[in-house]
Write a structure and sequence with these properties.
Length: 84
């Protein structure tokens, strides 16, 4: 199973849906809530996101080497090799 990393906002409904998708599939994720981090940590988080080729939109999901911006359960499943 590829590593999964989520960059989210604690108040974002689409971020909550992304988290729930992985919870429902019992897939462990490394989750980073941008808005709960301090200012210096936020700078690091944005630099990481941009390093993946992402923008500053949330959620940003990294599955293995694939970067997905926004809530896209079909793409999540595809990247994880799941059947829907």
């Amino acid at each position: 199973m590829p590593k999964v990393k989520l960059y989210t906002l604690s108040t974002c409904p689409w971020c909550h849906r992304a988290k729930r998708f992985f919870q429902d599939k019992h897939i462990a994720v490394d989750c980073v809530d941008y808005d709960l981090a301090g200012a210096k940590e936020q700078e690091k988080i944005l630099a990481e996101m941009k390093g993946y080729g992402g923008g500053e939109s949330f959620p940003l999901i990294v599955i293995g080497g694939e970067v997905i911006e926004g809530f896209d359960p079909e793409r999540f499943s595809q990247c994880l090799g799941l059947d829907g």
